[in-house]
Write a structure and sequence with these properties.
Largest sheet: 6 strands, antiparallel, barrel
Strand content: over 45%
Strand order of the largest sheet: 24-25-29-28-27-26
Number of strands: 32
Number of helices: 1
Shape: globular
């Protein structure tokens, strides 16, 4: 809530009153309405944005997509991808200007599987829906290979015996047909990091003892090297792990865990460490203290950012951008305000509010393009029961809605 942000800043400044962080004026668009709590899936490039979400109307459930380009915003398109209960969409680059769209859905027997399609820049379906995973799938991570192909690691199998499997999808959206052995047993919540030098690590959570593992991932053949334990994340009875996400900047890696506690409180825990470090330090709660009146140089086309440091303005629903940056930006919720926290040297170092009083109930999404513009997407709840799917970026100032 805004009152909480004001109060904490006043306390930090040691005075009776202090102005809250000013909201950075990013142009924003509503791209759709949907009964979903998560941000729309998004892929950002210098030539525009591709977005996808799960819509519904009198005709039933469907997957929708829209593009925003320098020429304007296209009409929303219902993709001809017959769904049952789709969720967990992600978008990645395919051949040329095409995009991979991945999601999870029920198969003919009602079991969740991973599916893929290739869509064009004009939002036509070129291939799909194509089944990818060979067993029950509850979550997945993708690794873009730079040539339009992907590696996908799924978390699934029996709920009591989760395991990871790897699948290769070529630049035309065709999964490789040979069956790969499971990568790891007693393993869930996979997440990739591709370091600045090109090496790739796969991280995951081991439910039996709460350890977080890391192992080198060979992007040539989809195999893992020897795993090591880098951290521990214990859950109390009734707690839920909602997301485990890794990211990095030029000097360090970061590990974020979004939790919902048994009492309903949301929080984010994080740690950081060097690429080759055997341990990344304690998973601690993510909180900031904003330093009113001090600016922070974020290194992005992001507008005004205030300096910040560790504190007790608690953040939740963290969603870091993926890329090779001097400083790592991550979308996060502070009270009811949606903003971006910037990390430097393993600690929060800057903060800006983008959408005051957003009141999110699901995760946002954040991406950067090749010209250092940031794109923030979220689903803003409405009293009607649906959510307004919103996207904000300073880049949109030069892109008329059309």
């Amino acid at each position: 809530m805004r009152w909480m942000l004001r109060a904490l800043l006043a306390l930090a400044a040691g005075c009776a009153a202090a102005a809250p962080p000013s909201t950075t004026a990013w142009p924003a668009l509503t791209v759709g309405q949907a009964e979903q709590s998560a941000a729309p899936a998004m892929w950002a490039g210098v030539d525009g944005l591709t977005l996808a979400w799960v819509g519904a109307d009198d005709s039933g459930i469907h997957q929708d997509a829209r593009a925003i380009t320098p020429g304007g915003m296209t009409a929303a398109v219902v993709l001809p991808l017959p769904p049952a209960r789709p969720y967990g969409q992600q978008i990645a680059p395919a051949a040329g200007s095409d995009r991979h769209l991945l999601w999870m859905d029920a198969d003919a027997e009602g079991q969740n599987r991973l599916y893929a399609a290739v869509i064009t820049a004009d939002l036509a379906v070129k291939r799909g829906p194509t089944p990818v995973s060979a067993e029950a799938t509850r979550r997945y991570a993708i690794l873009s290979n730079g040539d339009g192909s992907l590696w996908v690691v799924s978390g699934g199998g029996l709920p009591a015996e989760p395991r990871l499997r790897a699948y290769y999808i070529d630049l035309s959206g065709r999964p490789r047909q040979d069956s790969l052995a499971p990568l790891a047993a007693d393993a869930d919540w996979p997440s990739f990091v591709r370091w600045g030098g090109g090496a790739v690590d796969l991280f995951w959570w081991q439910p039996s003892d709460g350890t977080i593992k890391r192992a080198p991932f060979d992007a040539e053949n989809g195999t893992l090297g020897s795993p090591i334990s880098v951290n521990t994340l214990h859950l109390d009875p009734g707690d839920r792990l909602e997301a485990l996400i890794t990211a990095h900047d030029r000097t360090r890696g970061y590990l974020f865990a979004n939790l919902t506690r048994a009492g309903g409180e949301r929080e984010t825990r994080f740690s950081s460490g060097q690429a080759g470090a055997a341990a990344w330090g304690e998973m601690r709660r993510l909180g900031i203290e904003v330093q009113a009146g001090r600016d922070f140089e974020a290194g992005f086309n992001a507008g005004d950012v205030l300096a910040a440091g560790p504190g007790e303005l608690w953040l939740s629903l963290a969603a870091p951008a993926q890329g090779d940056f001097e400083r790592l930006p991550a979308a996060a919720l502070a009270g009811d305000d949606l903003g971006i926290v910037y990390f430097e040297g393993g600690q929060p170092a800057g903060f800006q509010v983008i959408a005051p009083d957003a009141g999110l109930i699901g995760p946002p999404a954040l991406q950067a393009d090749g010209e250092r513009f940031l794109y923030l997407a979220w689903a803003q709840p409405a009293r009607s029961g649906s959510a307004a799917l919103r996207v904000a970026s300073l880049r949109l100032a030069a892109w008329p809605p059309g």
